[in-house]
Amino acid sequence: MNKRMILRMAVDKNVFSFLLQAHKIFSKDSNYSIFKGIKAIRYILKGEKIVKFQDKYILSTFMPPFPSRAFMTHITAVREEKNIFTQQIYSKRSAPISMHVSLTDRCLYNCFHCSAKGREVKKELTTEEWKKVFKELQEMKTSVIGLTGGEPLLRDDIEKLIEGIDDRSSVVLFTSGQNFTREKAISFKNKGLFGVGISLDSCIKEEHNKIRRNEDAFDNAVTAIKIAAKEGLYTIVQTVVLKNDINEEKLFKLFSFAKELGAHEVKILEPIISGNLLLKEDINEILYDTESRKKLIEIQHRANKTGRYPKITTFAYTESKEKYGCGAGTQHSYISTAGDLYPCDFVPMNFGNVKNESVSKLWSEMNETIGNPKIGCFAMRVNKTIQNNSKGILPLCTEKSKELCAKNKSKEFPDFYRELQ
Q: Where's the Radical SAM core domain (predicted)?
């Protein structure tokens, strides 16, 4: 499947033009060679299925679509204008690749694995405050901006917020699908939205509704997926799979169902000790171990090789040592509803508020404290400690957050970086 798509890309003049431009940028760095450039591309494509979407190619949703202005933002997001390739392979970035922003904590569902539960409730940022944040994120070269929540569609100003981000970044909306209409999909796309991630945990209605604790959850999700795909938005089915549900037959049924609905990708998320799961006593049947991750990665690779399903991605692979590692505070970060900066959606550490300081300053300080991308999920490593040190009030304060991050710095790089170094 990928061989045919690569041949298609090889005769695409836009791809050739972009690669030539990237080569000129990187070749100013003595540490760069065409061999290393090819090696980087091979690592990016390893285990992935390339998807042609409109006039772009989706190599990995870890990154923006290719070629695009947002992808150029991604490769030039470094601290200095010289030696760009070297800075990239040592993860010396000026911004995360992706920043998720929680537009609201409001949600009509009560998912048992919700990562946002148990955090201090504060006032939402206003339309103008979010627009200011988006401007700063783009100036520091954040290439993917994810609009999440809660349920972001509960914001009355969602269209104005989407419109506040230009094509220097790729914009993805994450939703349960509730109140996602054809009219909204058309408007969102016209205002610059690239994709939609819609939660669907099972192709069996009763199972999904039980997980989301809402009797309309399945119908809302299915309707939204169909609408998003039909109206030209890159459509991702986001599914949380528990350890005991890593079943080949069950997952391939979900992949087939997603394809029937028109989805372009199925992204399998791992349950994380965060939010509701911090309080759950026995979670051995829920959380992954080494064998369950290995099994899930094998399923991803096999499904992608067949070419019969949407693009399949898993956090188990993307964030593994063999790929990019855990990017909390380095490749990915999160801003809460009230404007507090976290390393990621699942790590409730407060590194300052964007209403008081620039995002760039706060992120640089956090990034310096955290260090390299990590081998293994940072949330799984520190969240119990965060809970114990927070006295029940999350997020953890900045001072204690910095202390904990300093104790958990990684000296080792994930393979993508290590091999290019």
A: 93-308
